[in-house]
Amino acid sequence: MDNDILIPEMGALLQQGRDVRFTPSGFSMRPFIEGERDTVVLRKCATFRVGDIVLAQIPNLQSPITNPQYVLHRIIAINDKLITLQGDGNLQGTEQCTTNDIYGTVVQIYKPNGQTKCLTRGRIWFYLKPIRRILLKIYRKLLKLQNNTL
Amino acid sequence: MKIKKGFKLRPIGDEWMLLGEGADQVNFDKMITFNETAAFLWQQCEKHKGDVTADMMADWLCDEYDVTRDIALEDAKLIIADWIEIGIAV
């Protein structure tokens, strides 16, 4: 089903104080979240901190008429109400939104075997940014090896 | 057949979705899309609460839709098999 329908529905449930579990897609949160494999639990939190992974609606500033973009990315900067996000697996490119555009914060990450992943704030990863490209390449190789042996 | 607990039918967009729901968590991973008829039958099962047979389902279908008893019974049997197979009923 379309994200434009599903995500606002999730947002409504989060607003009611329910946790929402789902499987994100895409690879922009590698190596912390593997899209279409790991599942995450979101919760509506009143406050945000740098390092939180959040589901947000990114307003399309070029064309407000077209559908907004939804991302599950990490907060890398907070400037009053303005939030800057970046995917852990992205080398460049950030998104900006306000606190009102955030649906929920990731409070749990599950691997396919049901075990939980350690929810880090990504601080070390942030400082490793200059060599992220190399680390992501190694991660992809390891993932490929792991998939081949399965 | 008996529908399992822990699921809730929700209208989302133009469709019906069966979502896994606990006391404080809604699971979009266990999301199953239902058509209008399946949603109607699920709601009837929820109201009924106890065991449901294909015959009972066929009655509900005949009361609600313009359908012959034979076709309704066949559809009911298929849907029961389907629900058991995907793990939302026993």
Question: Cα-atom Rg of chain A, whole angstroms?
Answer: 16 Å
**Count of the domains of chain B:** 1
Instruction: Summarize model confidence as the mean pLDDT of chain A.
Output: 89
Number of domains of chain A: 1
**Uncertain regions spanning at least 5 consecutive residues of chain A:** none
Structural shape of chain B: globular
β-strand number of chain B? 3
CATH architecture label of chain A: Ribbon
Most strands sheet of chain B:
3 strands, antiparallel
Describe the structure.
The complex is a heterodimer of chains A (150) and B (90). Chain A is of the alpha+beta class and 150 residues long. Chain A has one domain (3-149): Umud Fragment, subunit A (Ribbon), CATH 2.10.109. In chain A, 24% of the residues lie in helices and 31% in strands. Chain A is globular, with a radius of gyration of 16 Å. Chain B has one domain (7-85). Chain B contains three helices and three strands. In chain B, helix 2 crosses helix 3 (69-85). Chain B is globular and about 40 Å long. Chain A binds chain B through residues 1-2, 5-6, 9-10, 13, 17-23, 39, 41, and chain B through 10, 12-13, 15, 17, 24-29, 31, 33. Strand 1 of chain A pairs parallel with strand 3 of chain B.
Key features of this structure:
heterodimer; A: 150 residues; alpha+beta; Umud Fragment, subunit A; eight-stranded antiparallel beta sheet; 8 strands; B: 90 residues; three-stranded antiparallel beta sheet; 3 helices; 46% helix; 26% strand
